[in-house]
Amino acid sequence: MIRIAKPAGGPALGRTLAVAALLAALVPWAVAGAQETPETPGTGQVPPTRPAPGPQGAEPSERVTRTEQHQDWLVRCGHPGQSEVCEMVQQPVGENGEPIMAVAVGMVPGNPNPGMIILLPLGIALPPGVELRIDGGAEIETPVERCERQGCQVEMLLEPDLLTALRAGSSVTVDFHVHRQDGLQRVRVPFSLLGFTAALAEVQNPG
User: Which of 9, 62, 89, 126 could cross-link with 52 by S-S, CB 3.0 to 4.6 Å?
Assistant: First the structure.
């Protein structure tokens, strides 16, 4: 079992990556389109993705000024200050075409490691947290940081060992639980790592 590092200050990562606005289309009932699984983990298939929307209600200087697609990842760049800042995003969708989950990766000020945010639907069971597996490998446990209007948010720092595994992988499965009449039901949503390395290179060195 692997336990991931959390950024100092917790919620600061969420504010840095501006993920709340870009993931505003996530709807609580979209979890119905996810793959409900038995307790035995599996890798599943990566669902299709759709481009993430631009930030809603952002100030003009913070709006997305350019985008670039790297296979299954969309890189979005803007100018919140004088320097260009980029983040990479992916939104797996269910059979009904609605987002099930959203993932964003960006740089964290004052830290050499990038940060990742995973946004999940409202209404999920907070304990027992979220489990990630890269290509069906070792379990990575992480808690849900908080739930807001846009959804429930998982935050993590991508330290070197984890970052190397993501660059070498093909997909990640995200397991969480929802309440059903007969108890908790595990739900598994995969997202793709195709294009991860190229997208991250642009996020780390924008422009």
Answer: 89
